[in-house]
Specification:
The protein is built from 15 helices and two strands. The protein is mostly helical. It has one domain. The protein has a two-stranded antiparallel ribbon with strand order 1-2. Helix 1 packs across helix 2, helix 8 crosses helix 10 and helix 9 packs across helix 10. The two termini are 31 Å apart.
Length: 291
């Protein structure tokens, strides 16, 4: 169930759940949270680059959605209404992004250049495959954080989640043409950096993930015992988004887009704790007659 897919028929299910919620069905509320939590959380994670802060950010957005359900008039799709709340909350939030990387491409390039490159043999690369993947995904996260918040959200929705310009423009509250233009600018900014820096995109670039892993482990940038992006409850965006979702342009087939779509996607959550926290913090009981 990719809420950003043009072929998604989830809105009918969402509307049915909302009707039940307004009649006092607590289980329907649980189902609604469970349906959208993974996508809201993973959007938050890519927006801020910190999994712990992403939990807070996504929970705050869910609380806003739930406490405002009474104002949902069903004049638009629930997806559009809910993710506009998410958009506003994420873009206006003042939490600082992950400090592991720079806030602009120039500084990020300097940081990557300053990390000593150490060659690994083919056997060593195989042994350290998980740590090398961790370096790659941390670097990709750092690149996203170099975009403005608006660019970041548009790129995540339009390129990583593969939403078409109809859905993307509805969520962002801008025209289809403006959404395409802003997505194109975000793509170009990322592509220009990766084309000039990343060896995975341009083989003439000296920067290689496996060459950075030794120093990353030594300095603690990567913790081999606690890999951030390689856990049992993680999938990838490529596995979770629908394979037949519409691409905005042929550019999305480029390797730099595929690299970002291969980023970790958290699929499993401690649902009980999240739902309990949402219900405790949200002042929605009287509004929805769920006392």
């Amino acid at each position: 169930m990719n809420p950003f897919s043009a072929s998604s028929d989830q809105d009918e299910t969402d509307r049915s759940l909302i009707k039940k919620i307004k009649k006092g069905d607590r289980q329907a509320l649980t189902h609604l949270i469970e349906r959208h939590q993974p996508y809201i959380y993973n959007l938050a994670w890519k927006m801020i680059g910190d999994p712990m802060q992403a939990e807070d950010l996504s929970q705050e957005a869910l609380i806003k959605i739930i406490t405002n359900l009474g104002s949902f008039k069903q004049e638009s799709s629930f997806r559009t209404w809910a993710y506009r709340i998410v958009r506003n909350h994420f873009i206006n939030d003042q939490k600082k992004s992950s400090a592991k990387f720079a806030s602009n491409f120039e500084d990020l390039g300097y940081m990557l250049d300053s990390v000593k490159s150490i060659d690994l043999t083919a056997e060593e690369q195989q042994i350290k495959a998980e740590e090398i993947r961790e370096v790659r995904l941390q670097c990709l996260s750092g690149m996203l954080l170099c975009l403005t918040k608006e660019q970041r959200m548009i790129y995540i929705i339009g390129e990583i989640f593969k939403a078409d310009h109809n859905i993307g423009s509805d969520i962002m509250g801008i025209s289809k043409a403006n959404f395409r233009m802003k997505l194109s600018k975000a793509r170009k900014d990322l592509h220009n950096f990766m084309e000039n820096k990343c060896g995975l995109v341009n083989k003439s670039n000296p920067c290689r993930c496996h060459k950075k892993v030794t120093v990353s482990l030594e300095t603690g940038l990567v913790d081999a015992k606690d890999l951030l992006f390689n856990q049992a409850d993680f999938s990838t965006f490529q596995a979770e988004i629908e394979p037949d979702a519409n691409y905005l342009t042929e550019e999305s087939e480029h390797i730099y887009a595929q690299l970002h779509q291969g980023h970790s996607f958290k699929t499993q959550f401690d649902k009980t704790d999240l739902i309990v926290n949402v219900l405790k913090k949200a002042n929605w009981k009287n509004r929805l007659n769920l006392n």
